[in-house]
Amino acid sequence: MIAPAVPLPPLPQLIERKRDGGRIAPAEWRLLAAAYARDEVPDYQMAALLMAVYFQGLDREETRALTAAMLESGATLPLAHLDVGRVDKHSTGGVGDKVSLLLAPLVAALGVAVPMMSGRGLGHTGGTLDKLEAIPGFRTDLTLEAAARQVERLGCALIGQTAEIAPADRRMYALRDATATVESIPLIAASIMSKKLAEGLTGLVLDVKLGSGAFLPEPARALELARTMIALGADHGCPTVALLTAMDRPLGHACGNALEVREAVLALHGDAPDDLLAVTYALGAEMLVLGGAAPDRDAAHQAMRAAVADGRAARRLAEIVAAQGGDPRVVDDPDAVLPRAPIVAPYEAPRAGVVAQVEPRAVGRGVIALGGGRTRVEQRVDPAVGFVLPVRPGATVAPGEPLGEIHARDAAGLAAGRRALDAAVRIVGAGEPVPAPLPLLSHRVSAVGVEVLGA
Ligand code: URA
Fold first, then answer.
1. What are the CA-CA distances from residue 327 to residues 159, 257, 336 (Å)?
2. What is the distance in A from the centroid of ligand 1 to the CA of 176?
3. Ramachandran sector of residue 336 (left: φ over 0; alpha: ψ -120 to 50; beta: rest)
4. What is the whole-number distance in angstroms between the Cα of residue 389 and the centre of ligand 1?
5. Alpha carbon distance 101, 264 (integer Å)
6. Spatial distance between the Cα atoms of 305 and 109, rounded to a whole number of angstroms
7. Best label site of 48, 316, 335, 444, fewest CB within 10 Å?
8. Is 407 assigned a catalytic role?
9. Residue 172, phi-psi category: left (phi > 0), alpha (psi -120 to 50), beta (remainder)
10. What is the distance between the alpha carbons of residues 399 and 115, in angstroms, rounded to a whole number?
């Protein structure tokens, strides 16, 4: 990095400038991020600046500069020597979203390198790292060097953000979480893209969630986030495509760490809820085309179906699990390997009617109430608990009809789970209005523009 020529102005001046609608220059962002990563800027000043950014926003050049500054505050995955495409997928977060668990081995089995860096559960949403760690022995804390070697060998590593990757973002994100400054489009875009670009990718696919369970439920805001991240990808030579997908109901049936691993494994054997498979294949098709392993999306769909049918995708997952210290038998016999909650009880319809909504935020909070997620960073999660909820909006139900299962550690958990589902599963009388669910795959956004899919 070339040392910026200007010194960093005193922090109160920078904060004041941003507070009053001014700009922070690229060189200033660089100095600030580097100083913050070295612990030379106090959190109270950074928090004030972030709040000013929250209200005043960042223009395109500032967003680009902040992203580059956070990226350059740390190391990158040493993968540039690989002669295959390197493509990752990032989801903005949802409930029941176990797509990464099946997508990464599937795409890797078809010849694209997938250096996948994931996060832990955040707010009401689950996190891929927590899900993977439900597999006994599975380690997500590989060093960058070890992850790079595994990608060379197996085409995929499933890791967490190491201390070496974008340390300025790591600190800033924790501060934002504690100061109500997460929901800012430029801050979210810069935070996500600084980490993704550190993976040394040749392409990136984004799954931007819409609906009540998404962090940005409104389509216009989700589209703006997608466009901002696509522009940042283009600025850094990383072609980026986004699909906008529904999060007004959970994805698939299982919500909870081990239960989601089980559903993902069964999906790799061809036994999957339709919505989970449709989202996985749509994202996978984009990855395979961006990674140069398929000429178009139709060919990519065919290749993925074949890799599931002949077992290549499942075998690749077993290899990745074994390489990262986990028990690879999870792929052939998940029930023998995954932790199981002591109590499994049906959730029954409390009355007759039509299911108007299965609200994902309430389901996600229910998983946390069962112990399967966190309300504080340092909490341990219980991998075994959660829900299996095949019921979908529009279903006509009779009183006492089983709509799903609650997997709980104890009687208090079971009661909390039942309360959460009473709030999440809204049943209305026959003839009352039932809101139309969002299209599962609504928009495709690329550098070229927005395509309405509406499927
Ligand atoms: N995920 C991130 O990594 N950063 C954000 O700002 C929001 C979600």
1. 17, 16, 10
2. 10
3. alpha
4. 27
5. 6
6. 12
7. 335
8. no
9. alpha
10. 48
Is 191 touching ligand 1 by the criterion CB < 6 Å? yes
What's the chain's Rg over C-alpha atoms? 22
Q: b/e map of 38-51 (b: 16 or more CB within 10 Å)?
A: eeebebebbbbbbb
Q: Which of 120, 131, 171, 195 is catalytic?
A: 195
Is 49 in contact with 15 (CB distance < 8 Å)? yes
Q: Name the closest-CA residue to atom 8, ligand 1.
A: 188
Q: Which of 191, 194, 442, 446 is catalytic?
A: 191
Tell me the CA distances in angstroms from 239 to 201, 242, 289, 312, one per residue in order. Answer: 9, 10, 11, 27
Q: Is 169 one of the annotated active-site residues of the chain? A: yes
Per-residue pLDDT of the chain (455 residues; tens, 9 = 90+): 444 456 889 999 999 999 999 999 999 999 999 999 899 999 999 999 999 999 999 999 999 999 999 999 999 999 999 999 999 999 998 999 999 999 999 999 999 999 999 988 877 888 999 999 999 999 999 999 999 999 999 999 999 988 889 999 989 988 998 888 988 999 999 999 999 999 999 999 999 999 999 988 999 999 999 999 999 999 999 999 999 999 999 999 999 999 999 999 999 999 999 999 999 999 999 999 999 999 999 999 999 999 999 999 999 999 999 999 999 999 999 999 999 999 999 999 999 999 999 999 999 999 999 999 987 777 889 999 999 999 999 999 999 999 999 999 999 999 999 999 999 999 999 889 899 999 999 999 999 999 999 76
Q: Is the CB of 188 under 6 A from ligand 1?
A: yes
The one-letter code for the residue type at 229 is M
The tokens for 18 are 């941003």
- Cβ 328 vs Cβ 318: under 8 Å: yes
CA 25, 30, 34, 36 dihedral sign is positive
Work out whether strand 87-91 and strand 203-210 pair parallel, antiparallel, or are unpaired. parallel
Taking CA atoms, 180 is separated from 285, 361, 364, 397, in Å, by 36, 18, 20, 40
Instruction: Confirm whether 361 is a catalytic residue.
Output: no
**How far apart, in whole angstroms, are the C-alpha atoms of residue 335 and residue 353?**
34
